[in-house]
Amino acid sequence: MSVLSMLQPRSGLRVLVTGGGSGIGLVIARAFAETGARVHVCDASQQALDALRSDPANEAISTTHADVADKTAVARVFADVESKLGGLDVLLNNAGIAGPTGGIDEMDVEQWEQTVAINLNAQFYFARLAVPLLKKSVHGGSIIAMSSVAGRLGYAFRTPYSATKWALIGLTKSLAIELGPDNIRVNAVQPGIVRGPRMERVIAARAEQLGLSYPEMEAKYLEKISLRRMTTQEEIAATVLFLCSPGGSGISGQSISVCGNVEVL
């Protein structure tokens, strides 16, 4: 195999993307499909899944409507994965929410618990059911946890989000050690400030919290990035594909920031 050919995933991979109905998850799901993978996505938004299925370009992607924080729904996802894909080679644990913005003394307990349930507990629910399938993967299985640059930096007023993203790094490191003998690689990707509607909502919430205009808050975010620009969803997808390619077969237990070098949050 040439070095160049090692940079693309093998055709025919069976891939599950959580939170794959929109945003980064959908971009990644489509990227895998372009390589010849068979992709299944789950999402809490039926509207997003309907839009996905209505696009002929997504014909290689099957779907399940599911709340990732619901253990029963997660089991249903895996029943669909086995019936539609017949196994699994890659789990992309992507589903997550931004969580609340506010001081810790003002934080609503239910919002904290919801953030932990979706951002952390759900990744455990999916990993525990994926591992028996990944152990049967011919070329070795791969789990990729979608963490965040907030999983390596403190993030004032976004403590639930940051805490869960830090926790995913511990989960990744531990599972990499645990599952390595079964030829399953486990890594985390840490996006930074990614251009798109979700980041716009985050900036708007932070601006309101600090009493700033949106342009002022956006400028403050960009000042924290060495490259002085936001990263793109496609850059995140390209990193994920590399981790699942033969060229990435020696990478496990790593947390890879795709952020333009965010210096502080």
Automatic annotation (TrEMBL):
PROSITE patterns the record matches: ADH_SHORT (PS00061)
Pfam families hit by this protein: adh_short_C2 (PF13561)
Molecular function (Gene Ontology), one example: oxidoreductase activity, acting on the CH-OH group of donors, NAD or NADP as acceptor
InterPro entries, A to Z: NAD(P)-bd_dom_sf (IPR036291), Sc_DH/Rdtase_CS (IPR020904), SDR_fam (IPR002347)
CDD domains reported for this sequence: SDR_c
Transmembrane spans: none
Source species, domain of life: Bacteria
UniProt record similarity statement: Belongs to the short-chain dehydrogenases/reductases (SDR) family.
NCBIfam families the record matches: PRK12826.1-2
Listed name of the protein: D-beta-hydroxybutyrate dehydrogenase
Organism from which the protein derives: Caballeronia sordidicola
